Amino acid sequence: QHRDRNFVQFSRCVGTPERFILFRHLVPSIAADLAVLASLDVGWAIINISTLSFLGLGVQAPTPEWGAMLNEAKNVLTSNPTQMIVPGVAIVILVSAFNLMGDALRDVLDPKEVNV
To answer: Average pLDDT per run of 10 along the chain, which is 116 residues long?
Structure first.
């Protein structure tokens, strides 16, 4: 989408090297999108790591991890529900924070997309 813009095509027509076009025109055009996608992907990574650890496929027992804590707490859910609620709420809060940060970054870095 950015490759076909007029300023990139003009730079190619006048013989500008591809590396210069990449760093001068394309990287600044996609930097905002990359920042937003990176912040949203952190939330997905947290969910994926926690899920794998909950299933027993992630980080092993000596290392504390929220998914492993949830897995160990499911055995004592009826007697001590706090042991399962705390890591679950921590995952929800952290993932929500990264998603809200990504949404705020999108609003700040791309003001023409904001709905009034």
So the answer is: 74 83 77 85 93 87 85 88 91 94 82 58
pTM of the model: 0.72
Q: Using alpha carbons, select from 113, 111, 93, 100 the residue that is nearest to residue 36.
A: 100
| Number of other residues whose CB lies within 10 A of the CB of residue 92 | 11
d(CA 2, CA 27): 10
Q: Mind spelling out the 3-state secondary structure of the chain?
A: CCCCCHHHHHHHHCCCCHHHHHHHHHHHHHHHHHHHHHHHHHHHHHHHHHHHHHCCCCCCCCCCCHHHHHHHHHHHCCCCCHHHHHHHHHHHHHHHHHHHHHHHHHHHHCHHHCCC
User: How far is it, in rounded angstroms, from Cα 63 to Cα 57?
Assistant: 13
Torsion, CA 68, CA 72, CA 73, CA 75, rounded to 10: 150
